[in-house]
């Protein structure tokens, strides 16, 4: 293996393809095919141990956690793992650990209360004017902390049984809905034609103004972002896409090119990160991540506090540290680079913005604020400013 130093990997856009797999006889034509990538995902303990020496906790994690959320890792994403470092931030996202079998009384199977907000199976209608449409339970790889691990991957007891026809009829009837977010699972695992059927059916509903797709495929499987897919998506504008990157190392040359292809087809891109212990819970990593995202033409959108998903306590970061990260970004770097930190309220309250306190005091006639450097300023309320500045009647 000929890996560049970890710091280079994190700060620059380097190709990882096919790296280690070339020594296993994989051709670049195979490597660049999303079909090959999906077919050759690492899904069993045996395959994993062919490539990597697992720690005891990981080994037990793979054996014990499979009944809840399946393991699957594309060779592309697996290639980013530092094989010599059990604390590798890529490894922690996709390789199960025994801690996944630990549960605390606060944790829930459905932490955001989605199931209770489903008027139709697969359609979550929590906010007045927009819906979350869960179109599939499959992903290119599985994130160990997935908020929908109760249904995603098909390994758990609960199944996602999306009723497409009932969902379309619900959307047709509910004229207050103007925004549909396709998610899952990962909608970009559908074939172009299956995805197009859904998009064109949605576009036939006149009151739907805005469509978006939530997908981690550009990161897990950049080979899937073909010119054909982009050309199809472009017919359904305005269409936005939210991707999911947690660590700067995930932004390789191949991923950057996939994101640029989407952007070149007029798709505005946002990123949703999850704050994870040992992955992105320090300011340097977070700053590198948001800067690299802007270079890929992706606007950091949300930074999520980890949902209270069962078996995720080892990845949890205290809210105080999340607020400190935002404070370390705001004012110190490009405003476009600063995501909104949110907690998805446990039990189903929706996303709540969490911010550092820049308002120190508010009285009837003034607001006392501080800036990113800690300097305080006073803003007088309009009512406190006396008289017109210029008396034009004169
Ligand atoms: C996140 C989410 C949305 C979209 O929220 P935005 O703040 O508009 O991005 C819509 N519905 C549900 C249920 C969600 O969880
Ligand atoms: S890609 Fe999204 S839906 Fe799929 S496992 Fe990861 S977080 Fe869950």
Annotate the secondary structure layout.
Elements lengths: L5 H6 L16 H4 L2 H6 L5 H7 L4 H10 L9 H4 L12 H4 L28 E5 L2 E5 L29 H10 L5 E5 L8 H12 L6 E5 L2 H4 L6 H7 L5 E5 L9 H12 L4 E6 L8 H13 L2 E7 L14 H11 L10 E6 L4 E4 L5 E4 L3 E5 L5 E5 L14
Parallel strand pairs: 2-3, 3-4, 4-5, 5-6, 6-7, 7-8
Antiparallel strand pairs: 1-2, 8-9, 10-11, 11-12
Bound molecules: pyridoxal-5'-phosphate and iron/sulfur cluster.
Structural account:
- With 394 residues, the protein is an alpha/beta fold.
- It has three domains: 13-101, no CATH class; 115-353, Aldolase class I (TIM Barrel, Alpha-Beta Barrel), CATH 3.20.20; 360-394, no CATH class.
- Helix content is 28%, strand content 16%.
- It contains 14 helices and twelve strands.
- It has helices at residues 6-11, 28-31, 34-39, 45-51, 56-65, 75-78, 91-94, 164-173, 192-203, 217-220, 227-233, 253-264, 283-295, 319-329; strands at residues 123-127, 130-134, 179-183, 210-214, 239-243, 269-274, 298-304, 340-345, 350-353, 359-362, 366-370, 376-380.
- Strands 1-2-3-4-5-6-7-8-9 form a nine-stranded mixed beta sheet. Strands 10-11-12 form a three-stranded antiparallel beta sheet, with no helix packed on it.
- The protein is globular.
- The model has no long low-confidence stretch (mean pLDDT 94).
- Bound molecules: pyridoxal-5'-phosphate and iron/sulfur cluster (SF4).
- Iron/sulfur cluster is lined by residues 139, 142-143, 146, 148, 152, 184-186, 216, 244.
């Amino acid at each position: 293996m000929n890996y560049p130093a970890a710091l280079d990997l994190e700060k620059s856009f380097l190709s990882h393809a096919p790296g280690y797999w070339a020594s296993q006889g994989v051709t670049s034509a195979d490597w660049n095919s999303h079909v090959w990538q999906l077919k050759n995902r690492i899904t069993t303990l045996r395959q994993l141990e062919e490539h990597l020496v697992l720690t005891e906790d990981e080994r037990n994690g793979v054996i014990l956690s499979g009944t809840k959320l399946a393991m699957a890792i594309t060779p592309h994403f697996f290639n980013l793992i530092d094989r010599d470092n059990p604390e590798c931030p890529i490894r922690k996202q996709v390789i199960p650990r025994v801690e996944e079998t630990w549960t605390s009384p606060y944790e829930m199977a459905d932490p955001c209360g989605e199931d209770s907000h489903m008027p139709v199976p697969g359609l979550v209608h929590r906010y007045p004017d927009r819906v979350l449409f869960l179109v599939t339970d499959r992903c290119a790889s599985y994130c160990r902390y997935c908020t929908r691990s109760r249904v995603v991957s098909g390994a758990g007891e609960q199944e996602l049984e999306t009723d497409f026809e009932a969902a379309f009829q619900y959307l047709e009837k509910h004229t207050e809905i103007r925004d549909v977010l396709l998610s899952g699972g990962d909608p970009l695992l559908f074939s172009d034609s299956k995805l197009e059927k859904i998009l064109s059916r949605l576009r036939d509903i006149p009151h739907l103004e805005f469509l978006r797709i939530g997908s981690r495929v550009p990161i897990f499987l950049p080979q899937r972002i073909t010119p054909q897919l982009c050309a199809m998506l472009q017919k359904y504008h305005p269409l936005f896409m939210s991707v999911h990157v947690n660590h700067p190392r995930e932004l390789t040359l191949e991923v950057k090119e996939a994101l640029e292809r989407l952007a070149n087809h007029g798709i505005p891109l946002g990123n949703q990160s999850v704050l994870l212990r040992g992955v992105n819970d320090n300011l340097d990593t977070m700053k590198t991540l948001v800067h690299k995202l802007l270079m890929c033409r992706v606007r950091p959108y949300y930074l999520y506090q980890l949902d209270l998903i069962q078996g995720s306590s080892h990845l949890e970061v205290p809210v105080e540290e999340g607020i400190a990260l935002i404070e370390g970004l705001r004012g110190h770097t490009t405003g476009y680079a600063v995501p909104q930190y949110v907690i998805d309220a446990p039990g189903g309250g929706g996303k709540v913005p969490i911010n550092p306190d820049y308002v120190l005091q508010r009285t009837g006639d003034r607001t006392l604020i501080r800036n990113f450097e800690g300097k305080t300023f006073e803003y007088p309320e309009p009512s406190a400013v006396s008289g017109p500045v210029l008396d034009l009647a004169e």
